[in-house]
């Protein structure tokens, strides 16, 4: 193989590279506050039960202590996470959800989106 052909091979490989999670899709996943809050908790702890995520998200969204929040609000948050947010994140391998234990953990693409979350949180 000549130097020119190896350069062409490496250039074409670079042109074909697509990240596991495209930036546009990452921004879509970060578009709701609920998902950003949930991902922030996972960034801190690695894995968290879904009920704990729902409580923490409700506290942060409502700006109240958990004792001041109607349990129905936490249930509504849990249901939105369970039926909408977590499945979207799981479909992109950002999180892994163990339904038996009701635990959410970081997935294969978590670091990619966590880095973007950190960058957007700083601004």
Automatic annotation (TrEMBL):
Annotated region described as Disordered, given as residue ranges: 1-22
One Pfam family it belongs to: DUF7344
InterPro entries per record: DUF7344
Location of the DUF7344 domain: 27-104
Record field: compositional bias (Basic and acidic residues): 1-10
The protein's name: Putative trancriptional regulator, ArsR family
Organism whose genome encodes this protein: Natranaeroarchaeum sulfidigenes
């Amino acid at each position: 193989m000549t130097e020119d052909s190896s350069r062409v091979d490496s250039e074409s490989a670079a042109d074909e590279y697509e990240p596991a999670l495209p930036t546009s899709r990452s921004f879509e996943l970060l578009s709701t506050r609920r998902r950003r809050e949930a991902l922030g908790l996972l960034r801190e702890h690695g894995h968290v039960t879904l009920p704990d995520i729902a409580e923490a998200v409700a506290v942060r969204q409502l700006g109240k202590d958990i004792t001041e929040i109607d349990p129905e609000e936490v249930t509504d948050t849990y249901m939105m996470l369970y039926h909408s947010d977590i499945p979207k994140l799981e479909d992109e391998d950002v999180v892994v959800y163990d339904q038996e234990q009701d635990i959410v953990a970081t997935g294969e693409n978590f670091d990619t989106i966590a880095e973007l979350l950190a960058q957007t949180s700083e601004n």
